[in-house]
């Protein structure tokens, strides 16, 4: 990912004055505060013009907030794709979004990005994958695909067989599994981190994000442990990606917020972000 692909989306600092009418920016902020988070999501992704009426073969999508990735039904490796049937050009660089959820975030990137890239969304909730793929068909995109997969089981074999280079892996607001005994269910586990380190192209990036500090620290520590492979982006002084004193990125560098990011920020929560580059 070159420096031109990293966009800043920092919010302006708005000030209210009791002695004057609110500015246009302030009025916009007041309107957003009154909107529900689903309305904010629809507004953020309005340019996609997605059909929210679920097609008959998909049925009603009832989102399960958490599933147990260690149950036997999720431990079967996903079938390797015939990449030529999935993408128009299989030599393009690949971005993989692990735990892509509804897929709107990845769809926006695939439709809006000026970079020539393919996008792969991995999601463990099957109906979300079905709905996302129906949207891919509606948008007639040939640079994006969603598939049902447990990343800790299938990531290695999927990206290893992809003909082009893997240049970006994102893990954004994964299920937190708060209880200590459930931490083994978290998606960022040592084998997955090692697999990313092996398969990511030199110079490629890893973008991590969570609205739960404990989860963000856990992900950060696992990638920091491979300091000989990954370097945090704030060490690159020529890139305009501002961080706080703890090294957390102050804004999403990919140009649009995820749905969970929108929900969390509408409730006043902080988002903790890290971006790493693989050393040459």
Automatic annotation (TrEMBL):
User: Might you give the EC number(s) for this enzyme?
Assistant: 2.1.1.33
Recorded GO cellular component terms are: tRNA methyltransferase complex
Q: Which GO terms describe its molecular function?
A: tRNA (guanine(46)-N7)-methyltransferase activity
Reaction catalyzed: guanosine(46) in tRNA + S-adenosyl-L-methionine = N(7)-methylguanosine(46) in tRNA + S-adenosyl-L-homocysteine
Q: Which PROSITE patterns match?
A: SAM_MT_TRMB (PS51625)
Cite the residue spans of the region called Disordered.
Answer: 1-29
Locate the compositionally biased regions of type Low complexity.
Answer: 8-20
Q: Which domain of life is it from?
A: Eukaryota
Query: Do you know which InterPro entries this protein is assigned to?
Result: SAM-dependent_MTases_sf, tRNA_(Gua-N-7)_MeTrfase_Trmb
- Please give one Pfam family short name: Methyltransf_4
Q: Which UniProt keywords apply?
A: Methyltransferase, S-adenosyl-L-methionine, Transferase, tRNA processing
Q: Which NCBIfam families match?
A: tRNA (guanosine(46)-N7)-methyltransferase TrmB
UniProt protein name: tRNA (guanine(46)-N(7))-methyltransferase
Native species: Acorus gramineus (Dwarf sweet flag)
């Amino acid at each position: 990912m070159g420096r031109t692909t990293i966009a800043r989306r920092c919010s302006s600092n708005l000030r209210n004055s009791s002695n004057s009418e609110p500015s246009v920016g302030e009025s916009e902020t007041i309107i957003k505060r009154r909107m529900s988070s689903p309305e904010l999501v629809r507004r953020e992704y309005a340019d996609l013009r997605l059909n929210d009426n679920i097609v008959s073969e998909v049925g009603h999508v009832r989102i399960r907030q958490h599933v147990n990735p260690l149950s036997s039904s999720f431990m079967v490796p996903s079938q390797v794709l015939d990449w030529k049937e999935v993408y128009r050009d299989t030599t393009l660089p690949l971005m993989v979004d692990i735990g892509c959820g509804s897929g709107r975030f990845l769809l926006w990137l695939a439709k809006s990005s000026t970079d020539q890239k393919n996008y792969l969304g991995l999601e463990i909730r099957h109906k979300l994958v079905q709905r996302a793929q129906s949207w891919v068909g509606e948008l007639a995109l040939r640079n994006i695909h969603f598939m049902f997969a447990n990343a800790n089981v299938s990531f290695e074999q999927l990206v290893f067989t992809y003909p082009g280079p893997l240049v970006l892996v994102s893990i954004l607001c994964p299920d937190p599994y708060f209880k200590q005994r459930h931490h083994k269910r978290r998606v960022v586990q040592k084998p997955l981190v090692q697999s990313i380190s092996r398969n990511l192209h030199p110079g490629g990036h890893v973008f991590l994000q969570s609205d739960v500090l404990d989860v963000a620290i856990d992900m950060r520590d696992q990638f920091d442990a491979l300091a000989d492979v990954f370097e945090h982006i704030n060490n690159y002084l020529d890139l305009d990606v501002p961080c706080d004193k703890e090294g957390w990125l102050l804004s999403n560098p990919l140009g649009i917020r995820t749905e969970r990011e929108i929900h969390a920020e509408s409730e006043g929560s902080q988002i903790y972000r890290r971006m790493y580059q693989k050393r040459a």
